[in-house]
Amino acid sequence: MSAQVWPHIPHEQLIKEEEDSLAAELQWLLEALQDALPSLKSGLEECLALLAPQEPGTTLALSTHRSETIKGVVTRVGTRIVKGDIQIRLPSLPAPRSLPSYPLRITSPLPLPQLSALLTFLNQALDIIDISTWTGDPKNGPFISGQLRLLGDIIHEAQAIMKGGEEVVGGKWWEDDFNGDETDLNMPLYPSLSPHITLTPSSLLLTVRTLVPGPAASAPGTNGTSTPSSTSGPSLTGLSLRTRLTQILAPMPAPTHDEADRTFLYRGAEVKVRDKVRVEAQDPSLMAVGAKLSAVGREVEAWRGKMVIVMGEEM
User: Rounded distance, CA 217 to CA 270, Å?
Assistant: First the structure.
């Protein structure tokens, strides 16, 4: 079934009429988009406001489900953890003498690289909207289409940052070394302890790992590391005589977590993860940012789809 124009007009004139109609529709679409850009900008600005550093910050509770493995609180101000008091109980982590659990206290600001990267993406998205509104030609279809594509890509990157994982900035715990600075703690970390804080879509995620020397580090002649004994660096074998005897006489069961079969290069030595515990702290601000960012992303994709149809492009 096909549609025909009556009365009949020449093919060349029909093509011209179609082009004029598409051009008029494109101009209408560009004008409508200019009316929608302030709403998109407002949504992104609300995300920035939710992540802005505001005292006294957001205090978040950390607690493992139905156990006393991890208990504590952390306070987030903007893109940093400014203080925290966490108690850890793990079979492979000896508690200090006279204490029931291992204390992990954050006393100086601890940066969260994922949140810093998220702020960068949000500011880039706002710059694109400003360029589309004021700097560039708002009636130029190819230019606005390219800006929408770039805006959609940046929002997608921001959403990926919030999802976390090893591929995002700050996601590789074996490289971050508790985000890189033991001076943020009130005491040196136990040699085999590796805490790591990252993001999930709606919360902060604390992952606590205890480490043991890897295959290369345990081989004869390596002195417990994967490098010669003359190389300086933290040792993972600084265990007390009591702890070593306990591990020999009452060995712990084999680890069953998802990193049990992996070997990591941590502080210059090959290590394996003995125990791994994850606990999330629900953050209302992150939940709101995730919802607003998803709404903005859907709106941008909708406008992008309309431009593709009118201009005959590919998504």
Answer: 6
